[in-house]
Amino acid sequence: MMHKTGFKAAMCLATLLFAMEASAAGGDKSGPLINKAVIQQEAGKTVYWVLPGPRQLSKEVFGTPDNPKRTLKPILAEVNKPPIRELLQKLPVLVAAPEPARKTNEAETEYTVFSQPTPFSDKARPLPPDQSGFFRTTLLDRVAEDQPGKPGNTPDEVQLESWFHDPAGNKYRLEFDHVVQPPFPGYETQGGVFIDGWLHGTTGTGSPLMPKEYTRAAWWGVVDLYINDEKVDTKVAHLMTTEVVRKRDYSLALDEEMPLESSERHIPDQEHHTHLIVMPIKPTPQGPVFEPVNTAFELSNGKNQPFIHMMFEEDSIVEWQLGSQ
């Protein structure tokens, strides 16, 4: 059974992802290096374009109808800044799964799915090898905790080279601008570049609609988006290299199913994969603004997909240093 109060199903862009206050690159880059990671995937290997769809709900993360967890109201109570409060009300899945969009079983004793379309779905299309994608990113982690002040106040740095296609064959390229720290209650991102820890699920950092997953490296930042060699957008993006959370049928695992055994993984011999999401969040001097990503890929409803979620399934960790000076 689904409760419908206050929710609009049309495209459901309000169920998408992370948003940050806009800021200049900022931050003193001269601090000592704590951690470093270099990750890449060569062209011609397995890449998926993730489509919007519903998401199964983990009992461990979201509780039961009699004892719900990760609801929006108590999280909003921790927010003092009106722009961030408004953002979380419009994009609640940044931190929660609001109860009105949770379906239950017939007996109303368990949650079944979050019915609004999100990027954390089981629906995805594999891309042909000659139109898959490539990325290489370098993450420089100089602080162990988020820094006070504006989200741009961080000495962490990121370098990125990337290109990929959508299922219609359009070619995308991202240019990285600067690191940001998500200004949400409970988020702990190590200054916007995160190396060696846990994200999503019950951690409080990242959408709880993703399972809790061991993360080798992750960043949050602002990127310029090019499609077919034309600059079309500037948005907030998030990349993370994690243990494998996609099963053999490409469904997204629940927290209760993690960690996946080798035989359960989409590619059994692959121990990690990389998620890259471009979010429907436009940074402005006044703060984050909800705005669909200007993709070129048309969905079955005749509208263009409002976010980008790429899965690079055969990535390589080129370099991974902890505690370097």
Automatic annotation (TrEMBL):
Keywords: Signal. Residues 106-127 are annotated as: Disordered. Residues 1-24 form the signal peptide. This is Uncharacterized protein. It comes from Halomonas cerina.
